[in-house]
Amino acid sequence: MGTYILKRIVTIIPIFLLATLITFGMIHLSPVDPAEAYLAAAHIQPTDEILAQKRQEFGLDQPLLTQYVNSIIKISQLNFGVSYVSNKPVWEEVTSRLPATIQLTIGSIMIAILVSVPLGFLAAIKKNSGIDHFSRFLSFFGASIPSFWLGYLMIFFFSVKLDLFPVEGIGTWKHLVLPSITLALPLIALYTRLLRASVLENLQESYVLFARTRGMDEKIIMGKHVLRMSISPMITGIGMNVGKLMTGAIIVEAVFSWPGFGRYFIEATFNRDVPVIQCYILLAAGLFLFSNLIVDLIQMYIDPRISKKGRQVQ
């Protein structure tokens, strides 16, 4: 296990460096001049003298290779520069907003798991029943409805009409309910379909037939064996979506005025706040890589055959 983790970390490093290179290239190929963006955010009239001064201050007058190496050194120290808008360190701004995004991510993932696991499992073992038809309808509905429209519907019915939950902001558990459900519905649609298809596939496997032939209790077969083997695709989906949600559910955070990382990125994009945009892209890449590593480790624990196959390939 330790060797596998070490090898995965070694493979992650060049991928992350490639992400830094792409980000660096995008910023320098962009028509937006960081110096001009800074002056525009600061409401300073740009002149040739001030632009030259800012380009020298930002190190933009140095060769590209030197700039890239310096940016790598700063990133390794979690130094993403200073926001053009707030004049505060970007990492300080990001870490102050990440807890809200983490809270929203955990809430939506928990709702999705609590609904999709029993629903997808029952839909598979009771194929073509009422609950199966309901799961298909919910999957179709959740996959097709836009998040921003669902968010406004939730606000209209549960906040404006029924006055059950706050319209926007953060503070109590009630503030978390509507945005979490809005984010969870597409995940429920995805996870329910994945689990249903996986359970149906595993029900045709020979180990299920052998277990029934030996007279093993049906609940043990379904719970201990079928469900455990079927949940692997769903875990993969969760890992991918955790990285996505952790970098900010941009639309939902905007609809509910949630002070998270995604909303901060939108504001930075409008303000052409280059250091914040760079930090967002690199943090997104890092979170995706880390979440995929965690998912692989969880799948190895659930199905030890994965690690054996990996050793055979090597």
From TrEMBL:
Gene3D superfamilies: MetI-like
InterPro entries xref list: BPD_transp_1_N, MetI-like, MetI-like_sf, Nickel_NikB, Opp2B
Record's keyword annotation contains DNA-binding: no
Methyltransferase among keywords: no
Occurrences of domain ABC transmembrane type-1 (ranges): 98-299
Transmembrane parts of this sequence: 9-29, 102-125, 137-160, 172-191, 238-260, 280-302
Keywords: Cell membrane, Ion transport, Membrane, Nickel, Nickel transport, Transmembrane, Transmembrane helix, Transport
Superkingdom per UniProt: Bacteria
Membrane topology: Multi-pass membrane protein
Compartments (UniProt record): Cell membrane
Assembly mode: The complex is composed of two ATP-binding proteins (NikD and NikE), two transmembrane proteins (NikB and NikC) and a solute-binding protein (NikA).
Family affiliation: Belongs to the binding-protein-dependent transport system permease family. OppBC subfamily.
Protein name per the record: Nickel import system permease protein NikB
Organism listed in the record: Robertmurraya mangrovi
Gene it is expressed from: nikB
